[in-house]
Amino acid sequence: MTLGKYIFSMIFVSAICWGCWIVVLYMIDPFNAGVLGFVFFYLTFAFALTSSFSVFGLVFRLWFVKNQLAVKQVATALRQGIWFALLVIVSLILFSHSLLFWWNGLLLIAILAMLEFFFLSKDHRDHVSSFDSNGY
User: pTM for this structure?
Assistant: First the structure.
């Protein structure tokens, strides 16, 4: 699959996810649906956010990061889209239970930043070790 087809399909998937979220938002009554209604709300919203953040992140990375393979940029943009969506979803859940405080938000950001640094260091170690095994 070419990069253009990937971006087009991700935009298409993002539009479908946002459509599903809007259907859930308008068609499900949260007072009568119970837990399942909230699960559908947060799940469709998470997919919509992840796909949108991934597309925006990929376009941003393609525009500003020129020295990296497109496959790496796609993987990084998708991973960071998941982190941003997780940040929004967990913040909304904490807010809905009146548990979102500034220190909770900072702790959540710190945890997600550490996870991202772990993946970045793992990618860097894999890149360095592949050069070492080839004798460079």
Answer: 0.83
